[in-house]
Amino acid sequence: MFAVLKTGGKQYKVASGDVLRVEKLAADAGEKIQFNEILMVGSTVGAPFVVGAAVQAEVIDQIKGDKVINFVKRRRKHSSKRTVGHRQQLTLVRITDILESGADKSGVKAAIGAGSAPKAAAPAAAPKAAKAAPAAAAAGADDLTAITGVGPAAAKKLNEAGITTYAQLAAVDAASFEAVKVKPEWVEQAKELAK
């Protein structure tokens, strides 16, 4: 059985026992990892990925690729030349298993590139809660950004201060309102829009 996996912006056709040199992954030698972006398993083609499929591998070593030298020279008098070398950081992995289904239940750490940090669960939940609050407030609210000078940031501050409609903004005393700096022009426009 074979699979086509995607990692580091490249695609690899692999079978059990193959040894691959892939772009650097955040894993130590001897660690077991799992590639979840599977494009094809045997004859099953996914669009864009085969759901539930995975390829498990063991990290053999972290290595560097061959040195690539880039030399640029401009001919004639007062010319310049520049030499730049590069060695790509790679991870050597041995494919151990190809799973057609049940990849999410395997409990093996997902293969993540060295440049990207793993996504934390707690910070991801905070933006969802922040988006839910304005959506709940927007159910009976007016679009305060229709007022000249009120942008998304000012509208958010007004919503947090409890002002969600034109009528509420029209009733505010601009000089004594402390939560947000309210301009008198906003109050006048809100009176017009509240009618």
**Approximate strand percentage:** 25-35%
Biggest sheet: strand arrangement: 3-10-7-4-11
Structural class assignment: alpha+beta
Helix fraction by DSSP (H/I, runs of at least 4): 10-25%
Evaluate the radius of gyration: 29 Å
What is the ordering of alpha helices and beta strands?
EEEEEEEEEEEHHHH
Number of spatially distinct domains: 2
Biggest β-sheet strands, sense, barrel: 5 strands, mixed
Number of strands: 11
Mean pLDDT: 82
Tell me the number of helical segments per DSSP (H or I, 4 or more residues long). 4
Alpha carbon gap, first and last residue: 71 Å
Judging from the principal axes of the Cα atoms, what is the shape? elongated
Low-pLDDT regions = 118-126, 128-133
Report what the structure shows:
The chain has 195 residues and is an alpha+beta fold. The chain folds into two domains: 2-115, no CATH class; 122-194, no CATH class. 22% of the residues lie in helices and 32% in strands. It is built from four helices and eleven strands. The protein has helices at 121-137, 152-160, 166-170, 184-194; strands at residues 2-7, 10-15, 19-23, 32-35, 38-41, 44-45, 54-64, 68-73, 81-86, 89-99, 109-110. The strands form three sheets. A five-stranded mixed beta sheet has the order 3-10-7-4-11, with no helix packed on it. A four-stranded antiparallel beta sheet has the order 2-1-5-6, with no helix packed on it. Strand 5 (38-41) and strand 6 form a beta hairpin. The longest helix has 17 residues, at 121-137. Mean pLDDT is 82; it is low at 118-126 and 128-133.
